[in-house]
Amino acid sequence: MDTSHPILFFDGVCNLCNGAVQFILKHDRRGVLRFASLQSDTAAELLPRYGVDPKQLNSVVLYENGRVYTHSDSVLRTLKHMGGPWAYLSYLGIVPRSLRDIVYDVVGHNRYALFGKRENCMLPRPEWRSRFLTE
User: Fold this and answer.
1) Quick check: 101 pLDDT over 90?
2) Residues with Cβ < 8 Å from 96, sequence gap 6 or more?
3) Burial code of 71-95, b = ≥16 C-beta within 10 A, e = fewer?
4) Cβ atoms of residues 118 and 18 within 8 Å
5) What does the DSSP assignment read for 56-82?
6) Where are the domains of the chain?
7) CATH class of the domain at 7-119
8) Stretch among 8-12, 54-58, 113-117 having the lowest mean pLDDT
C-alpha cells in the first residue's frame, strides 16, 4: 500500500462525500491527494492501527505521514493540500475545534437525508483511477 501521499478516506456510498471527492479531484491540480472509501480493504487494514474504526462512517479521515485527522481537521488539512485559493480556507483552523466539529457533526449526521445515499461506491473516471487506492 502506497502511503507516500496523503490519503482521504470517505464514505463511498454518501452522495455528499462522493461529490466532495469529485470537487477535490477537479481542484487538486498538483494531484497530491489519494482516495479510498471507508468501506475498502485499504481502510480496514490501515485505519485501525491508528485507533479509527472505518465501520464508523461518521467522518472523512485524512491519513498523512503516520497520522490521522478526522472531522473538521481532515477537511482543513485537505483544503491545505489542494493548494491555490482553497488553501486559504485552512486558516479556519483558528476557530476552536469544538465549534468546527459541531458544524461538521450536524452536516455529517444528516448527510444521507440531505444529499442521499448510493447503493454502491462510485467508480472513478479513467483519468482519476490512478489516484484511488483499490486494495
Assistant:
1) yes
2) none
3) bbbbbbbbbbbbeeebeeebeebee
4) yes
5) --SS-EEEETTEEEEHHHHHHHHHHHH
6) 7-119
7) alpha beta
8) 54-58
